[in-house]
Amino acid sequence: MGFIRVANEAMCRPIRALTQARGHDTSRHVLACFGGAGGQHACAIARTLGMSKVFIHKYSGILSAYGLALADVVHEAQEPSALVYAPESYARLEERISALEQECIRALEAQGFARAQISTEAFLHLRYERTDCALMCSAKDHPATPSSCRSGNFEASFAARYSREFGFTIPGRAILVDDIRVRGTATTGLGQEEPVAAAKAAAHMEKVTRCYFEGGYQDTCVYLLEHLSWGHSIPGPSILIDQNR
Question: Most buried residue, 3, 75, 151, 169, by most Cβ within 10 Å?
Answer without folding.
Answer: 151
